[in-house]
Amino acid sequence: MELIRTPQPELADLFVKTLRRNGFAVDRREADGQHIIELQNPAQYEHAHALLQELINDLRHQQHRQPVEPLTGRPQPLLSGGWFASMGWVTRGILIACAVVYLSTYVIGYGIYNAFLFPRVVEGLASQPWRLLTPMFLHFSLLHILFNLLWWSDLGRLIERLQSGTQLVLVTVITSAASNLAQFYYSGPQFGGLSGVVYGLLGYLWIYGKLNPGAGVALRKEIVIFMLAWMVICFVGLSGVVANAAHLAGLVSGCALGAGFGFWHRGRQAGESGENQAR
Fold it and tell me: Which residue out of 153, 195, 239, 273 is catalytically annotated?
């Protein structure tokens, strides 16, 4: 199935490389001075077309060579002036909320922190249910918040841009609740940070991308290895200062969500492909 054609061989090379890096099986041929790129699986047309359209739009708005996003290896305005503007409202909103809560300690003291901490006993959630999620907004040092927000901005933006803001909210809420409960039962209520959610997003994208390589969300292997190695290092050498239970619970819950939605999406694609063949 023809996906796109161009008279420029360099542009055709970029298209093919980008598509194959994101798991699409494509063929390339020349006819009448045009380089024609064809998609082997017609069911992937929508995702492949969206990927190329995004690449073309990026190239049009950049006069210099586009930097490569470290998470997926795809062309992205990650390090350009459009880094913040490229985030969706969910990614941007939670980033701003974390920053405001962190800075509030320098202006009004620890009132917000005390209101956002997990309750001293789990029964307290009955009267203050927001505390199941709000520990994710709490950070205790500049390095802590910078590390978490950099990962959040990249992982969250990927889900929000390629799936939806609603999907990002869903994954965030579930992994936040799972990681906060796990850390409470492991160490008590004195904890905070977005890292449990970060590991949740990582697990979600990792497994979803494995099950649906053509969806464009597959993470680079080096990124996954680094984050898993960091979690092991924290368990071994930083068990007293890092919320390890939150990391592990976030990762496991994120992987479970990635598997659930990944299998559902793959099944739906198979059904659509069968219908197209029947026609």
Answer: 195
Q: Is residue 83 part of a domain?
A: no
Beta-bridge partner residues of 38: 2, 27
**Annotated catalytic residue: which of 153, 179, 247, 253?**
247
**Residue at 74 is within a domain:** no
Residue 273: per-residue pLDDT:
56
The pLDDT of residue 31: 82
Using alpha carbons, select from 166, 105, 181, 104 the residue that is nearest to residue 136: 181
Of 173, 103, 140, nearest to 243 (Cα)?
140
Considering 29-38, 79-88, 143-152, 214-223, the range whose residues carry the highest mean pLDDT is: 143-152
Spell 194-210 as b/e; 16+ CB within 10 A means b: bbbbbbbbbbbbbbbbb
Active site residue 247: yes
- Domain containing 254 equals 89-268
